[in-house]
Amino acid sequence: MENFVFNTPTKVIFGKGAENQVGALIKAQNCKKVLLHYGSGSAKRSGLLDRITASLQAQGIDFVELGGVVPNPRLSLVYEGVALCKKEGVDFILAVGGGSVIDSAKAIGYGVASGGDVWDFYNFKREATACLPVASVLTIAAAGSEMSDASVITNEDGWIKRGYSNELSRPVFAIMNPELTMTLPAYQTASGCVDIMMHTMERYFNKSDNMELTDGISEVILRTVKKNVAILMQEPENYNARAEVMWAGSLSHNGLTECGTDGGDWATHKLEHELGGLFDIAHGAGLAAIWSSWARYVYRERPQRFAQFAVNVMGIAPGGDTDKTALAGIAAMEDFYHSIDMPTRVSEMGITLTDAQIEEMAEKCYTSAQGPLGVVKPLEKADMIAIYSAAR
Amino acid sequence: MENFVFNTPTKVIFGKGAENQVGALIKAQNCKKVLLHYGSGSAKRSGLLDRITASLQAQGIDFVELGGVVPNPRLSLVYEGVALCKKEGVDFILAVGGGSVIDSAKAIGYGVASGGDVWDFYNFKREATACLPVASVLTIAAAGSEMSDASVITNEDGWIKRGYSNELSRPVFAIMNPELTMTLPAYQTASGCVDIMMHTMERYFNKSDNMELTDGISEVILRTVKKNVAILMQEPENYNARAEVMWAGSLSHNGLTECGTDGGDWATHKLEHELGGLFDIAHGAGLAAIWSSWARYVYRERPQRFAQFAVNVMGIAPGGDTDKTALAGIAAMEDFYHSIDMPTRVSEMGITLTDAQIEEMAEKCYTSAQGPLGVVKPLEKADMIAIYSAAR
User: Which of A4, A11, A216 sits opposite B15 (nearest CB)?
Assistant: First the structure.
């Protein structure tokens, strides 16, 4: 078992009508001016933004707006946000949306408070020294960014997608009303649930002696999401299922699922980042398209672990041959992904990967990893090419 | 499913040698003077206090000491601590010990920062308005006070034991090195594990629609503690088992096990508080002595819930008659308590309860509850007498 630090200062306000508390919560922060940061459509169309601005105005809170965040949030908008915050004297950022908006808010927060070129933090040049306080009204259960220290930004110059983690960016509060996620299209709901499961699985498939308590919690999160996303494919307005998935999204990525472990593998995420940089796909769908190819490529390094996953998460009968059980678990995961209309190969997203594209992604991924990628089986560039090819 | 707030700001530093970071952690708090608060023996004998004072001195941190906290921590020492802190200008309290020391530290923190008679908060007279920052080096896995908003103090004037919960008292950080718990006597280890399990079970046995994710996490915590305390009865220096139990103690009581629920029943805890006020017994042992009598008295109000507990925690075969399964789970819990030398009746602690004592405890308990106690079956005074009598 590994030593660990568990640090989840984000205050979660969870449930029906929670968004109506946003004005009072920000008021308590004693900030001068707020950046209201959001995406490109649904928060405005649904009337959520109007309710939030009304809540801010009722508390006499001064704010400026910056919309337009897109999935795989762009560095150019981050630069725009940094400039706007400096000009307007913004000292608090409220993200209204999903992980992309929150990630963009964190990047703006670093840029304003740490100074210099914000891309430096994502490009391994230096560490952030400060971040503006960030909070969110969450509208998509997926990324877990509402409680995490992580953010992912895409630099359009070369379409480089990079993640950066720093405790400074843990949000102050997260407002989570499952009702706000009810109108999400099925594809986005399913893609979000894959992301939640993968945040748990990236940590679950590790190389350390494990902590039973962490393993058990991870398995509960995975079973709960698996069960409830299936319900949501039939009943998108099932409140309890939306709530289970939404809370699972936060717990999967707030640190709870890595206590006592080595932090996990993360190869699937990094391989998907290159795919998501090159093609504008839903992050969760990209993860689903790659995971089983990664899993079959590496499972022999920890067959017992993959067998435990098969039995405790996928419901494979225990007691059989370890390798067979492990492989049955991977196949069952593919069946599950297909059952919620998620791909298990890149081609299922309508993308025909060329050898040159695979070479380019592997090269970028290896550079981004700054050496062999992952811990279950540290991947060299040739391994990445093999996995991308299998996932083609 | 109920709306909820999840707020766990306490930073946990977990693992071998974690206590050596205490000086640096306090230094970062920019406080003027620290109260070093501890118990009456083991932390001093083991050399832990010497290492902590060395760590404080190495950082040039000014501190005063107050030892002498006993199990069921006393109001008189809290008063002494409040006076000392005011005289010395203390603005940060470091508790070195278990739940009793941390609870005493929280009470002192309220007394200094909120002013007036600190007993007022425990006696329903008023709410605290502030609390000095509190942190701990934990030496016993049991109370969960290291991350919780709760504290329990005993007023020697009438031997009244009362709990008070307020978010203001959530500790700033908790240093948790499982090695520090290895020298605990088996009885204290077992008693602590009962407390951990009961913190989870008090919330698990509730009256609301539940959250599957919370149920699953609670069941994992219970199974993990049950398994690992049995290991510790044979191998008290098993690091991994100590670590599983220690982390379970925090998760059981930091809010995670009540997300989406009504907060739980808590009757067993309140009934034990009266027993612990009258007789100086280990809190966990007192809980074990009462729980099954409470459970048999109330299970018919939620037989399905008790049956779920029987199957998912106690390993009773599913599918049978609900009431029989529920009762088999309660009996299995009694067997488990006996297997770790915990009592399931008060007499097993060498105490012969008189009718007058039962009457007195029920009267105090009813007064303390300010009305019917618990949610599974709200207990009137006559119900309390029946449960105490069954637990005799």
Answer: A4
Between A and B, how many residue pairs show a Cβ–Cβ distance under 8 A?
A: 105
Interface pTM, i.e. ipTM: 0.95
Residue where a domain stops, chosen among A147, A180, A213: A180
Indicate whether B89 pLDDT > 80: yes
User: Which of B145, B180, B215 represents a domain boundary (last residue)?
Assistant: B180
Together in a domain, A140 and A84: yes
Q: Is residue A2 part of a domain?
A: no
Calculate the alpha carbon distances from A377 to A302, A323, A380, A384 in Å.
9, 16, 9, 11
- The HSE-up count of residue B173 (CA atoms within 13 Å, CB side) is 23
CATH at A296: 1.20.1090.10
Q: Using beta carbons and an 8 Å cutoff, which residues of A are at the interface with B?
A: 1-9, 11-18, 209, 211-213, 216-217, 219-221, 223-224, 227-228, 239-240, 243-244, 247-248, 251, 256, 259-260
Mean pLDDT to the nearest integer, A313-328: 97
Contact (CB, 8 A) for A105 and A87: no
Q: Is the pLDDT of residue A215 over 80?
A: yes
Letter string b/e over residues B79-101, b meaning 16 or more CB atoms within 10 A of that residue's CB: bebbebbeebebbbbbbbbbbbb
A351 CA: distance to closest CA in chain B (Å): 36
CATH number at residue A29: 3.40.50.1970
Q: How many separate domains does chain A show?
A: 2
Of the candidates A7, A17, A213, which has its C-beta nearest B244's C-beta? A213
Q: What Rg, from alpha-carbon coordinates, does chain B have?
A: 20
* Residue B6 located in a structural domain: no
Nearest to A161 by CA among A194, A123, A198, A128: A123
Nearest to B314 by CA among B334, B332, B287: B332
> Based on the domain organization, do B161 and B189 belong to the same domain?
no
Q: Are residues B25 and B117 in the same domain?
A: yes
Q: Is the pLDDT of residue B40 over 90?
A: no
Please tell me the distance in Å from B143's CA to the nearest CA on chain A.
18
Contacts of A256 in chain B (CB under 8 A): 256
Q: What is the mean pLDDT of residues B132-160?
A: 95
Residues A161 and A75 in one domain: yes
**Residue-level pLDDT at A185:** 95
Whether B161 has a pLDDT exceeding 90, the answer reads: no
Contacts of B324 (CB under 8 A, 6+ apart): none
Enclosing domain of residue B377? 183-390
- Return the H-helix or E-strand segment holding B283: helix B283-298
Question: For residue A71, what pLDDT is reported?
Answer: 87
Mean pLDDT of A332-336: 98
Structural domain contains residue B1: no
CB contact under 8 A, B18 and A4: no
Looking at the fold, whether A149 and A204 belong to one and the same domain comes out as no
Nearest to A178 by CA among A144, A140, A147: A140
Ramachandran angles phi, psi of B137, nearest 5° = -110, 110
Asked if residue A341 has pLDDT above 90, the reply is yes
The predicted pLDDT at position A46 comes to 87
Q: How far is B211 from chain A (nearest CA, A)?
A: 7
Do A297 and A317 belong together in one domain?
yes
| Token reading at B318 | 């599913």
pLDDT (average), residues B263-290: 93
Mutation site, A16, A19, A170, A212, interface B, largest B CB count within 10 A: A212
Q: Is B183 helix (H, G, I), strand (E, B) or coil?
A: coil
Residue B81 lies inside a defined structural domain of this protein? yes
Same structural domain, A50 and A154: yes
Indicate whether B217 and B89 sit together in one domain. Answer: no
Distance in angstroms (rounded) separating the CA atoms of residues B176 and B26: 15
Range from A39-43, A190-194, A230-234 carrying the lowest mean pLDDT: A39-43
Residue type, B293: S
